[in-house]
């Protein structure tokens, strides 16, 4: 079997692991309470442990106790993160639809969800994010399902 999936990626729990070389990715973390507090979307790319530790702190810095960063082999893997930005209420979320590679570039397609007008939501600021392990890349582009580029990062 060239790839397999396990866990519940939509909820951010468990693991999505695609091992075929064209679409490999693994969700390392996902949630709605990132320490990132800007409104604009942000993409980050880490190709070494120091960069990864900074990225991980931005993702899980609001959690107590802070989860330990997962092990990543940076000889042949990269870690990319997408922070959607500060949102005024609950009800915002994102899901990884897929990843494709072209040379040293990865394109991550995300499905974004927002509360419908009039929906009852948590009245608290949220900051949705996802952290992914990818094949080793020098550039990552995050796009929505319509193809609109949301954010990108380079090594």
Account of the protein in words:
Strands 1-2-7-4-3 form a five-stranded antiparallel sheet, covered by helices on one side. The chain starts with 16 loop residues before the first strand and ends with a strand. It has one helix at residues 49-60; strands at residues 17-18, 25-31, 42-46, 77-83, 93-102, 105-113, 129-135, 139-144, 149-154. The chain is mainly beta. The longest helix is centred in the middle third of the chain and has 12 residues, at 49-60.
Features:
globular, 8% helix, 155 residues, mainly beta, 5-stranded antiparallel beta sheet, disordered N terminus
Oligomeric status: single chain
Q: Strand arrangement, largest sheet?
A: 1-2-7-4-3
Structural class: mainly beta
- The DSSP helix count reads 1
Q: State the helicity in percent bands.
A: under 10%
Total strands: 9
Q: Cα distance, first to last residue?
A: 32 Å
Tell me the series of helices and strands, N- to C-terminal.
EEEHEEEEEE
Global outline: globular
**Percent range for β-strand residues:** 35-45%
Taking all residues together, what is the mean pLDDT?
A: 89
Q: Gyration radius, to the nearest Å?
A: 15 Å
Largest sheet: 5 strands, antiparallel
Uncertain segments of ≥5 residues (pLDDT<50)? 1-17
SSE blueprint and pairings:
Layout: E1 17-18, E2 25-31, E3 42-46, H1 49-60, E4 77-83, E5 93-102, E6 105-113, E7 129-135, E8 139-144, E9 149-154
Parallel strand pairs: 6-8
Antiparallel strand pairs: 1-2, 2-7, 3-4, 4-7, 5-6, 8-9
